[in-house]
Design a protein that fits this description.
The structure is a homodimer.
Chain A lengths: L1 H8 L1 H4 L3 H27 L6 H7 L4 H7 L3 H26 L3 H18 L1 H10 L5 H27 L8 H18 L8 H15 L4
Pfam family, one (chains A, B): TetR_N
Organism (chains A, B): Sphingomonas psychrolutea
Protein name (chains A, B): HTH tetR-type domain-containing protein
């Protein structure tokens, strides 16, 4: 989103050529479609929602939607995949920035908790509509979630190795950390009594308690 | 279920009168309907499932179903409510049996974890089909879940008071324990690689780690 809106704003300043602008515009339009689709699926449920309704909300046409997505099911899949994809990207980024395993683990848990808060709607839709995903999409997303667990398991393992924490089974703990992080969607929704920051703090603390920290 | 099957088996032994048998038979039939409805909703999704399909699976008729439930939505509500109702009943039972707060907490977590394993299908349906519940039913179930959190929070509070554990905020911890227990439905399904016992043990251990035990 940041990248794409930057690309949209750029022309006035530096006149980039069309080849530079296009990927940003495509990403921006895809993101807008997903945002509206998510609001629509969240309100009406996937099965009751139609591409006509979605096109209406975007003041666009069905053919416009088909330029960006194969169909309703591809939109659902992109929504369900976003949270875990962004989380994996965050883990990559943090691995570059933080040197100590314990700092990597802490920063990763915090960033993922923040992604889950920001993607509340997307994740509720994933939990609700999982069975409406195409089989191949559902399996691909499960593989990504499994990869996420493995990566968190490795971070825990590295902390155990340098003795900053002590747990018997890093892989198991990573699964329960995933559970705590996912539970955020039941503790927080935009406009809820608890603030997003408080819920993120609590979730990170709970994860660290699992491995004897905090 | 235990009560009702006992009632069904009793006649040969002690010839109870009709008034004794009837509540057991009603409970048994309701339970059978919920069992089949759960399997049906789990496979097909709530919206695609029909009362005709359900009656077929039970070799019964639609009027038979209406004797026990107002309609499809009442069946969904009973399925979604079962897990938390059974959990609250377990907490009542354990309060009678165990004296020490810490033993009450441990026994409660274990029994609830076992209920969640046993009610895997019901709880998956609750997560998926929440938005298909009648508003009043959805709110009633939320209140029950809230009551469950409060009761676990009280158990933690009692442990803090007698110094068997030390946590800053018992209420908050009870919410995250709820998250860990609910995560069981993603870690275990009948026939999965991990055994039910192993998952229950892990979940209880994870909950106790949250409050600095295990």
């Amino acid at each position: 989103m940041t990248k794409s809106s930057a690309a949209v704003r750029t022309p006035a300043v530096s006149e980039p050529n069309a080849r530079e602008i296009k990927p940003g515009v495509v990403a921006f339009k895809r993101a807008r479609i997903l945002e509206e689709a998510s609001a629509l699926f969240y309100e009406k449920g996937y099965e009751s929602a139609t591409l006509e309704m979605l096109a209406d909300r975007l003041s666009a046409t069905k053919p416009f939607l088909y330029t960006y997505f194969k169909g309703k099911s591809a939109i659902l899949s992109a929504i369900c995949e976003a949270g875990v994809q962004e989380s994996l990207a965050a883990l990559d980024r943090i691995e570059e920035i933080e040197r100590l395993p314990i700092d990597q683990l802490k920063a990763s848990l915090r960033e993922v908790a923040e992604i889950i808060v920001a993607r509340h709607e997307y994740l509720v839709i994933y939990q609700r509509e999982m069975m409406n995903l195409d089989r191949a999409d559902a399996q691909r997303i499960l593989r990504l979630r499994h990869e996420f667990d493995l990566r968190i398991g490795n971070l825990i393992e590295n902390c155990v190795r340098d003795r900053s924490i002590s747990v018997a089974n890093a892989a198991t703990m990573s699964v329960w950390m995933g559970g705590l992080l996912t539970w955020i969607i039941h503790c927080y929704r935009p406009g809820s009594k608890r603030s997003a920051e408080a819920v993120v703090d609590q979730a990170v603390e709970a994860c660290l308690r699992l491995v004897g920290l905090a």
